[in-house]
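CHAIN AND CONFORMATION:
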Amino acid sequence: MPKLSNGLTRRTLLRGSTAAALGTVFTPAIIGQAMAAPMKIRISTGQANDPKYGQGRVFFDNLTHQLAADGLGDAFQLQFFPDNQLGQEIDVINSIKLGVIECHVSGSSIAANLVPIVGTFDLGYLFDSFPQQGKAFDTGAIKPVEEALLKSANIRILGWGYNFGSRSILSRKAVNTPEDLTGVKIRTLPNPIITECIKLMGAAATPLAFGETYTALQAGVLDGLEHDAPTVLASKFYETAKFYSLTQHIFQPLAIFYSELAFQRIDTSKRDRFAEAARKAVMSTRAHALTVEQEAIDVLKEKGVSIIACDREAFKKRVLPQTDAFMKRYPESKSIIETIRSTTT
């Protein structure tokens, strides 16, 4: 069942129920002023319903609190759908495009299926850190991608957060160098750019849906996976593999995808205020992201996982040609990549 925000009042719930029963918007007059029913906004994510380590849940909570603080708590009714409750991410992102679902919180890569230039952010070793990423995005590197998503996919970006840690390798054996990955079956996102990155790092990259990963590890179909530490912890992947090598091959941005059709349905008097509340919620989510990775790593240690400071430069050297090939294939990505590379923190 979807979880509603704590900002909803009993009166708001009753008003919404009555409206549904009548098949119309219920607008009782209160001292001469009509009160409109709150606008329902469904927020989807493939991540777990975890208030500390679940990116979608953290954003949902932050947005709920921010709308209430900005005096918009009664204007919007947020509904949260974690764990792919509204469908697999590829289906959800298409529903966002069509305006069937309002909002989806995910790593940026899922949208590359609709707009290939988004795949720029999946390139291995493109970013050095999340603060560098944030600075590059906030100074304009992200603008061409946002424009392409809006024009080609009818998707508005409400903000760019950080995933809760860089992507590294969890495996059944210690991985210190690219040679240690030879023949090792590592699960990747069903994403050709990330899959290529893991192949270049030396592994037998194996694309697989997220929901099938735990059982595949348990059965020995996989030898490991690449993901951030909080996800490894929240999804209990540490139960199946005990070595976490800090390859830090991808610092993937967290995107707040919003249907442009749904955005235009927001009352014009509240549209800009809603967008600003979402921006503030994203910034709060960024701040949270920077605190939880190390905490998750510490907890993994307590659960018996060996944390390995591997030869990151050796992996980086093998992966860098991927970026040059991507720029040749998608020339429009060159200015974005150059801006990111020139950004320092």
